[in-house]
Amino acid sequence: MPSLQGRTALVTGGAGGIGSAICRRLSLDGALVVVADLDREQADRVARGLVSDGGRAIAVGLDITDQDQWRAVISQTMETAGGLNILVNNAGGARIKPLEALSVDDWKHDIDVNLNGAFFGVKEALEALRQTASRSPTVGAIINIASVSALKGSAGMPAYSAGKGGLRLFTKAIAVDFARRGYRIRVNSIYPGLIDTPLTKPLFESRLKSGSDESLESARAKILEQYPIGRIGRPDEIASVVSFLAGDDSSYMVGAELVVDGGLTAA
């Protein structure tokens, strides 16, 4: 039997490269997946694909920086699925600029998307997760997708690094709190390195704009030199770790940090 059979998972940024891979993996593992994304049309596309492959999925539009929208999505999830077992705060984004070019609006954007969005998600989903866990033999799971930028300085990304760094300690704080309060909800975080999605292109382009490189190919090659494994990651390699943290095989993991970066932070 699939390891997540009978559970419901809500994934933010579910239409993106990493998000859609997470949705596919959780669906294959038996979960009913709520594909949440700012782009409702693309969320619908992902959900239809999961259903056509024999899974169960619904799509919802969600601006993660809007608490009222979060409240509506959690309510819809409970009405449609009857419960919520897994919350994956995956949605994120970056304004790739050095500090002197970073506006106050840029700063607020990255903090809103990478930190406040997860706060709103946990805040609004907590009671649903607790209720579901109280009547289920399995505990709930919250999985926050941070970044290696939360572990080491990322040049040209001060706001993104601050947001993901905040998400790191937010995760630990609520993980300890929920465990001690007996909520039966485990909270853990994942720290991806560079992953091969359309969102990697702006990073390469930023090196061209700064004059660090003369072509996208040379920018990519220099970034790859930082990775001992010799390549950037695939979305499914993040999705498999999400599946592990969502399931019972990680039952003793609370506030854990799983780094998935091809050796970048180990070097």
From TrEMBL:
<dbReference type="InterPro" id="IPR036291">
    <property type="entry name" value="NAD(P)-bd_dom_sf"/>
</dbReference>
<protein>
    <submittedName>
        <fullName>NAD(P)-dependent dehydrogenase, short-chain alcohol dehydrogenase family</fullName>
    </submittedName>
</protein>
<feature type="domain" description="Ketoreductase">
    <location>
        <begin position="7"/>
        <end position="198"/>
    </location>
</feature>
<dbReference type="GO" id="GO:0016616">
    <property type="term" value="F:oxidoreductase activity, acting on the CH-OH group of donors, NAD or NADP as acceptor"/>
</dbReference>
<dbReference type="InterPro" id="IPR002347">
    <property type="entry name" value="SDR_fam"/>
</dbReference>
<dbReference type="InterPro" id="IPR057326">
    <property type="entry name" value="KR_dom"/>
</dbReference>
<dbReference type="Pfam" id="PF13561">
    <property type="entry name" value="adh_short_C2"/>
</dbReference>
<comment type="similarity">
    <text>Belongs to the short-chain dehydrogenases/reductases (SDR) family.</text>
</comment>
<dbReference type="InterPro" id="IPR020904">
    <property type="entry name" value="Sc_DH/Rdtase_CS"/>
</dbReference>
<keyword id="KW-0560">Oxidoreductase</keyword>
